């Protein structure tokens, strides 16, 4: 019997890391496959998170780092590869979920111009007539990128809110009816999965490194924490937080 595609990976441990904040995240603008850069806070998030990722057991000898080729993900990843001293692999198959006609619009603009589409999105259902990609296609291409990685003990996958969600769902063999069972990754939040027997297991989800009040930003000024339940997460049918459009795909 052939192993499921999600099991046919050359690594037994995955760290799925979402990119740092962009100005578009901060203003609730849908990015999709458009390419805005990290803002100052996004760069600080990446710098302070990278050492905490290393402390989870990463080393140059055991770790491969792969990122979406969109600049916000690639630049986030370089904060980690610089600490580890490993090369960065870029793969366009890890790009964000293509959002078609919504890309570049704010949530308010989508709600005004496409109210029926927006209502479907809020409810977690497929959005008709928007263009872009289907969720299953996003998961399929992300898994294909991981299958092409070199063998390693752990892979850090630096990607986007929507793609991270679809990838985690595919690894855990969750169907469309289980969309949004897990809250979305915050900017620079990460989840860890490990292969155990014939299944993948979610070991931690949406871990973030918070800046300490009154301290300068930098690699040693944060502390790891699990984001509270309402931090960039969206209860089914409720209005998503205004600061981040792409997190709740």
UniProtKB/TrEMBL annotation:
GO terms for cellular component: cytoplasm. It comes from the Bacteria. Residues 215-249 are annotated as: Disordered. Residues 218-242 have a biased composition (Low complexity). Gene3D superfamilies: Phosphoglycerate mutase-like. One of its GO terms (molecular function) is phosphatase activity. The active site is at 19 (tele-phosphohistidine intermediate), 96 (proton donor/acceptor). This is Probable phosphoglycerate mutase.
């Amino acid at each position: 019997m052939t192993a499921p595609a999600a099991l046919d990976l050359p690594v037994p441990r995955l760290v799925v890391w979402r990119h740092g904040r962009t100005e578009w995240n901060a203003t609730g603008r849908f990015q999709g496959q458009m390419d805005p850069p990290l803002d100052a806070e996004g760069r600080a998030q990446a710098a302070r998170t990278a050492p905490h990722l290393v402390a989870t057991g990463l080393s140059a000898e055991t770790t491969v780092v792969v990122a979406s080729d969109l600049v916000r993900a690639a630049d986030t990843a370089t904060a980690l590869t610089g600490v580890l001293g490993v090369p960065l692999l870029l793969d366009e198959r890890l790009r964000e979920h293509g959002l078609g006609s919504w890309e570049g619009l704010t949530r308010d603009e989508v709600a005004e111009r496409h109210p029926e589409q927006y209502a479907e999105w809020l409810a977690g259902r497929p959005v008709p007539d928007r263009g872009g990609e289907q969720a299953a296609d996003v998961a399929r291409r992300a898994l294909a990128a991981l299958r092409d990685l070199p063998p390693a003990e752990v892979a850090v996958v630096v990607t986007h809110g929507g793609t991270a969600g679809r990838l985690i769902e595919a690894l855990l063999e969750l169907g469309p009816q289980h969309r949004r069972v897990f809250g979305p990754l915050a900017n620079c939040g990460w989840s860890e999965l490990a292969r155990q027997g014939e299944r993948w297991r979610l070991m931690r989800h949406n871990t973030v490194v918070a800046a300490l009040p009154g301290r300068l930003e930098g690699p040693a000024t944060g502390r790891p924490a699990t984001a509270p339940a309402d931090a960039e997460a969206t209860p089914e049918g409720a209005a998503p937080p205004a600061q981040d459009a792409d997190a709740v795909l």
